[in-house]
Amino acid sequence: MIRRFCMVAVACLLAGCAQQDAEESLTRTEELRESLDLNVQRFMLQAEAAWRQGNYLHALALTDSVEKYVPELADTYFLRGRIYTDLNQLEIANAAYATALAADEQYRGAHMNIGINYFRRGQLRDAIDAFRREEAVMPNTHLYLEMGRTYAKLGMADSAQWSYEQSIMIDSTNTTAYMWLGQLHEEMGDFETAIALSKRAAKIRPESVDYRYVIGTQLLRMGEVEEAVAQLRMVVEERQWHHGAQYNLGQALMRLGEEDEAEIHLALAEEAQQIQQDINEAHEAVNRDPSDVQNWLHLSEVHRKAGMYDRALDAYKRAIAIIPNDLRMHVNLASLMLESGDTDGAIAQYRMIVDRDPSLTDAWLNLGVAYGNAERYDEARQAWEMTIRLDPDNRTARNNLNTLARMASEG
Fold it and tell me: What is the mean pLDDT of the chain?
């Protein structure tokens, strides 16, 4: 029997790490890596781990430690670029990548990441120039994918097509390249080629909802309405607030004469459009001022309301990076993790909080909920008993303990 308990509402990092042929000489960075002190290696590994966990300020502090030991190590500045990119501080990120290139002009990935940040800022010509510089260092499937997207945005369809085809030539499993090339053909009016490419991508990644949406939309535009409905139904089952899927499904059902059901999906499309507008406005606020913690918290909340928990968590972690010592925010992050279904992650987060401040009642209460959801009932009981020691009048903890007692008596 499922029981529910009550709670308080609230790839390899380094671009140059590919194995080299024996006959090739090492780059300056690769030579330095081979001679790094063990302490420096540990700092770099800890910095990467902190970055991946969203502990951005700690990661930056660790890169400072590495720089003191080995100021000429390009890896340090490359990681800083990635951290500042995640924090949406793109100018600082590109300056860090430029420092990596000053230390090692052949550093792989730095020019490409500079180009991606230029793309995000709308500096498309500068992005192409950066991608071309990366091409001289190390052509790769992701580079040509980004190059194709940029050319497409510039309206240079032939160059975009060539870039996507280069990406696929290097990696025939690059599903994004198939999809973007298919969308390019769709924009040119070649629907048969477009849908063939989209289906190729979906065959490689049949679990992708995004690919089903693209295929459903293309089928609708081709007049294959019943097939389109089948694809789009699967999309809205998983993503209720997908505006395009709801709207196109409503339109397809109208064509089939299913007017009552069509109206339901068109109404949902209107709600989804408002949600998407809220998300867009939140993104714009973050872009205007990425140092304002409230902007990140709002971005997290609008994604949470839309059921986009991965993005909600990402935005919340970036808010915490601005004020990392606010344990109340860590409690809310753990609660968001628990709401998203990441029970193990929530438990680890709550444990970290109560270890740092054992007086936080809400953390103990919600830790008990997380243990209860994981069916670790003895640990749940201990957490709720601790809650009551801190707050003898806490009715939620007492109710949860009573629930455990009934469960035990029922066997």
Answer: 92
Q: CATH homologous superfamily of domain 298-410?
A: Tetratricopeptide repeat domain (1.25.40.10)
pLDDT digits (tens, 9 = 90+) for 225-247: 999 999 999 999 998 989 999 99
Q: Which homologous superfamily does the CATH classification assign to the domain defined by 174-281? A: Tetratricopeptide repeat domain (1.25.40.10)
For residue 377, what are its two tokens?
């009932």
pTM over 0.85: no
Domain boundaries, the chain: 25-123, 174-281, 298-410
Q: What confidence category does residue 57 fall into, taking pLDDT thresholds of 50, 70 and 90?
A: confident
Q: What is the pLDDT of residues 23-50, one digit of tens each?
A: 467 888 988 888 888 989 999 999 999 9
List the structure tokens of 92. Answer: 């600082």
- Which amino acid, one-letter code, is at 59? A
What is the b/e burial string over 348-381, where b = at least 16 CB atoms within 10 angstroms of the residue's CB? ebbeebbeeeeebbbbbbbbbbbbbbeebbeebb
Whether 262 shows a pLDDT value over 70: the answer reads yes
d(CA 59, CA 46): 7
Quick one: average pLDDT of 346-351? Answer: 96
CA dihedral 117, 125, 143, 31 (to 10 degrees): -70
Q: Which amino acid is at 24?
A: E
- The whole-number average pLDDT for the span 136-157 is 97
